[in-house]
Design goal:
alpha+beta; seven-stranded mixed β-sheet; three-stranded antiparallel β-sheet; 13 helices
Length: 288
């Protein structure tokens, strides 16, 4: 369900709490999205609009591309409407932005796609999904879990490996968890028994989801790639965390959690110039 950037904060927060996710249209200008897309394509060594070049890239799982500090990514992170949106949800402007990555998910092999595309359009649960998971401990109080987000860099239909979630599990999470430990509960998410909702969006749209929402992405059964930048914000933390964030930005290093994931192609530090920050960007990193 798409919502307007200009709804009141209270309405937006109620809808997100109830539904578990929001799609907010036209948050980021297309030119910023295209700049990030170009940086992603350059990193991968492909040509964005030439299908023949896509086949040179194997895209497993969510199609994560280990690019964190390119100036184009920082230009998008600093866009004021993203800060405004997360500020409404958290009820504070004192936020730090995540130093997350981008994603490129090429269409599935055309022979596979011909057999599956029609079924994928009819059934939101496209086959061969990545594992569903949570971005926070699902047992912590819902008010403390916070929110994750992504920006679609080009128009993205549900069958293009879009954001997928399990709203029925979210709606009855406490009862559904019962006595399960987190690992056991995560395994139970991936039995194929739950209704899956696939969520597309236009270029520049943000999908924001509660960290208690089980989510994943599906195989891309469309004819064009899925291009995404993951971006979220959280209330500011302690002084030690602030200093570490500044170091990561200055040295163009990936966060520790990203290093632990060992995504192929990760560079530490990343090459290229340091991004220029606006006054808002300096706040979002932790300088000010």
């Amino acid at each position: 369900m798409a919502t307007s950037v200009w709804e009141t904060a209270a309405e937006r927060r109620r809808e997100l709490d109830a539904q578990g996710y929001l799609v907010v249209d036209k948050v980021v200008p297309r030119e910023l999205c295209e700049d990030v897309l170009a940086a992603t394509a350059d990193f991968l060594g492909i040509v964005a609009n030439e299908p023949g070049s896509w086949r040179t890239r194997t895209t497993h799982g969510h199609g994560i591309v280990p690019l964190h500090h390119h100036p184009a990514l920082w230009a998008l992170r600093q866009w004021p409407e993203i800060h405004r949106l997360f500020g409404q949800l958290y009820g504070t402007d004192r936020l730090w932005v995540t130093m997350d990555r981008v994603s490129f998910k090429a269409p599935a092999d055309q022979q596979v796609c011909e057999a599956n595309c029609r079924r994928a359009r009819q059934d939101a649960q496209a086959p061969r999904m990545s594992a569903f998971h949570w971005d926070a401990d699902p047992r912590q109080p819902r008010s403390e879990a916070g929110f994750q987000g992504l920006v679609y860099l080009r128009d993205t239909a549900p069958e293009q490996g879009a954001f997928c979630c399990l709203p029925d599990v979210y709606a009855r999470l406490d009862d559904w968890l019962g006595d399960r430990q987190v690992r056991e509960a995560t395994e139970a998410l991936n039995t194929g028994e739950h209704r899956v909702e696939a969520v597309g969006g236009g270029a520049g749209a943000m999908v924001i989801w509660h960290r208690h929402m089980p989510h994943s992405s599906a195989l891309n059964h469309g004819t064009a790639p899925r291009w995404v930048q993951y971006v979220a914000m959280d209330p500011v933390g302690d002084e030690a965390t602030r200093k570490e964030r500044i170091r990561l930005f200055r040295e163009k290093r990936p966060p520790a959690w990203a290093v632990r994931q060992r995504v192929p192609g990760q560079q530490d530090p990343e090459p290229g110039p340091t991004a220029e920050l606006t006054p808002l960007g300096r706040q979002l990193v932790g300088f000010d």
